[in-house]
Amino acid sequence: MEAFHHEAPATRTVFGAGSIVHLAREIERLGARRALVLSTPGQAAAAHDVADRLGPRAAGVFARAAMHVPIETVRDARDAARQAGADCAVAFGGGSTIGLGKAIALESSLPILAIPTTYAGSEMTAIYGITDAGHKRTGRDERVRPRTVLYDPELTYALPTAVSVASALNAVAHAAEGLYAQDGHPMSALMAQEGIRAIAGALPAIRLRGDDRAGRAGALYGAWLCGAVLGGVGMALHHKLCHVLGGSFGLPHAEVHAVVLPHAVDYNAVAAPEAMQRIRTALDAPDGTGAGGALYDLARDNGAPLSLQALGLPAGALDRAADIVVAEPYWNPRPVGPAQRQEVRDMLQRAFEGCRPG
């Protein structure tokens, strides 16, 4: 066994159907008195229900979270928290809302309690992303890690099937890249493989019936594991590609992950054979099917988008995207830099067309 190091982050996790009833108790555990509830406009009604549940502990609702966390929205939310006298924030929703909470915490150190209603996994990490003038800046800072995460599968029953699938594949991407992370370790590998297995097993039940209790609980359990992997190790090419395609070209976050993942994994296959075998095992892939092909089949069989073209990316954007991806060196099991620009461009072409790897 190779040498490794592992440092467990401090996040309190409360998991179970109906666990929203513990919200007030968890805010008290934080030592907070007034919570600003954050959400997207589409979840405003549910956010107001959360605020009503808190009663006098609620400092109000800010329902303007947006994809890729625009800096203008961050500033408005920060001002709203200050004016309301909030001493904590409750991020109710998916990655956009939790990302907004993190961005507020980055500047104000306001503690965050996250209530995920998708499978994005951001709630388990100290990773933040803020988009300013079309460029998405990402980083790690322990100030943004939610102090408490409340997982209630019942809150995901109404999540549309298409959104559920894309969000779950976003979670799978965290685990897949975690399996070949530079700083990976045995625990992250176990969590990643189990997380992929749990989500792959849950998706067919969710597609059949959106309020399937076992399916929703299994997917949220898998998302928790995949998010913990994302929070504990570094990511590589896949996440770089998605940040570029989302932040610079405005493509939807989860759907981009669903499309790009098979191709990024296939690009890295030759450099990370053990990770590929773990992915294949988690997906129970047939003999002769590579990890990238198995991930493509998972997306296809569950109705996820398969091409960047279907997401609205113009063909003329591929050259610029490739240039951005290779411009700044970063670690990846297979080199990614100016010398590999054509290989990256070819991979983006395959993702644009929706070709099956292998």
Key phrases:
six-stranded parallel sheet, 358 residues, single chain, globular
Q: What is the gist of this entry?
A:
This protein has 358 residues and is an alpha/beta fold. Helix content is 50%, strand content 11%. The longest helix has 23 residues, at 186-208.
Overall description:
Helices cover 50% and strands 11% of the residues. The protein is of the alpha/beta class and 358 residues long. The strands form 2 sheets. It has a 6-stranded parallel β-sheet with strand order 1-8-5-4-2-3, with helices on both faces. A hairpin with a 2-residue loop joins strand 6 (127-132) and strand 7 (135-140). Helix 5 packs antiparallel against helix 6 (186-208), helix 9 (253-268) runs antiparallel to helix 11 (291-301) and helix 12 (318-327) packs across helix 13. The chain starts with 11 loop residues before the first strand and ends in a 5-residue tail after the last helix. The mean pLDDT is 94.
What is the element layout, followed by pairings?
Blueprint: E1 12-15, H1 23-29, E2 35-38, H2 44-54, E3 58-62, H3 71-84, E4 88-93, H4 95-108, E5 112-116, E6 127-132, E7 135-140, E8 148-151, H5 161-178, H6 186-208, H7 213-232, H8 237-247, H9 253-268, H10 273-282, H11 291-301, H12 318-327, H13 341-353
Parallel strand pairs: 1-8, 2-3, 2-4, 4-5, 5-8
Antiparallel strand pairs: 6-7
